[in-house]
Amino acid sequence: MFFSIFCKFLLLGCTSFGGPAAHIGYFRKEFVERLSWATEEEYGQWVALSQIMPGPGSSQVGFAVGYHRAGLVGAIAAFLGFTLPSVVLMCAFVALGMQFANSAVFLGVLSALKLMAVVVVTDAIWSMANTFCKTNSTRLVALLGAVFILLWPFALSSLLLVLLAAIIGAYWFTDSQPTQIKTHISSRVAYITLAIFCGLFVLTSFIHGTGWLALFAQLFQAGSLVFGGGHVVLPLMSEQLADFISTEHLLTGYAAAQAVPGPMFTLASYLGAVTAPEGAMIAWALLATVGVFLPGLMLMLVGQKCWQFVSHKPRVQGAVKAINAAVVGLLLATLIFPIIPSSVSSVWQATVVLLALLWLRTRQPAIWQLVSAFVVAGMVSALF
What is the pLDDT of residue 209? Predict the structure, then answer.
């Protein structure tokens, strides 16, 4: 089971360009629609939960999918598979000085996969809207949510949107049918995880310096406090790692993280690799990766158990209904900016996106088929 889950997420980790919104679309297409590992309702609540907790949202959703499928072993397999390709590429950037990132073939494939991200996110928005925006009130929440994010795209806007939607839903959507999403997480596991998180958070707040332990501590603190996804982690890391790395290196790593598939939080892998003493690049990169991801994944375990205790209450169900609609609006806003402007720059590319979307909606190809088509198209366009 570990190997099966690992391989599924490894493929997604190699091809998931486009940021957290696209990752959520990839996961939904593969694990809800094609493999039926989770229901639409279960997946929707994991997405909603990831939006109100610190940490890497898409990685938390993947972690929850893996846990739902095969317990802690499945969760670890999902995290390793999805994160490993990005970590390897970030270390390669450090080792090779980002030279291969300028090759024509690499840039052609990257451009094609960005177009694929537009297709996948659009498909996810369409499908999730059909599930979570069935009434005029939920459609209004989604529309207002998209407008809010587009007009005020500040660091914590997505968190504020989700909180406002929860308040609105708790008071105006209380006619929701009470349903409870069950979780395999035991109370013992949740309490132990929470205790370990709290202990590590307190302990790491007292660790300073420039050694490997201080690197882990500063990144654990950053991972515990980041709301709003990968892009928000940059200013926090800039503050936390002021003694470790220059602003130039930080911005170079940030650019590299946007050029590779997978979660933006692997910026930490680059920072660990570039600050490592000679001969310790891999060890420091892995240590940094664990440090920044661990808090969000631990909180996802705790959050799911807490969610189970309250999810059957009508007001909570109303809040979830509004949050799910707001997430649809958030995805729509992300598609409008920055995904489309950074991916589609010509009528020809727009035509490719529309044809691929039509293929995806009518034929429902597997994710590997979609990826293969875009990779081949990107290589052909680069060579000819």
Answer: 82
Please classify residue 126 by burial: count the beta carbons closer than 10 Å to its beta carbon, then call 0-12 exposed, 13-18 middle and 19+ buried: middle
* Angle formed by the axes of helices 57-96 and 267-275, nearest 10°: 40
**CA atoms of 319 and 176, how far apart (whole Å):** 9
CB neighbour list of residue 266: distance below 8 Å, 6 or more residues apart: 83, 86, 87, 90, 257, 260, 289
Judging by beta carbons within 10 Å of its beta carbon (0-12, 13-18, 19+), is residue 156 exposed, middle or buried? exposed
Residue 265 tokens read as 């939080």
Residue with the two structure tokens 């598979």: 81
How far apart CA 110 and CA 64 sit, in angstroms, is 28
Q: Which H or E element spans position 333? A: helix 314-334
pLDDT tens across 262-301, in order? 898 998 999 999 889 988 999 999 999 999 999 999 999 9
Sign of CA dihedral 16, 21, 27, 32: negative
Question: What b/e readout covers 167-198, taking b as 16+ CB neighbours within 10 angstroms?
Answer: ebbbeebeebeeeebebebeeebbeebbeebe
Q: What is the number of other CB atoms lying within 10 angstroms of the CB of residue 342?
A: 14
Three-state secondary structure call for residue 356: helix
Distance in angstroms (rounded) separating the CA atoms of residues 64 and 74: 9
What's the sign of the alpha-carbon dihedral 183, 184, 187, 189? negative
Residue 182 has pLDDT above 80, yes or no: no
Read off the amino acid at residue 40: E
Let me know: does 233 contact 267? Beta carbons within 8 Å: yes
Pairwise CA distance, residues 166 & 173, whole Å: 10
Cα 131 from Cα 302, distance rounded (Å) = 27
Please work out, in degrees rounded to the nearest 5, the angle formed at the alpha carbon of residue 256 by the alpha carbons of 8 and 278: 100
| Least-confidence region, from 36-50, 68-82, 252-266, 334-348 | 252-266
Under 8 Å between Cβ of 342 and 114: yes
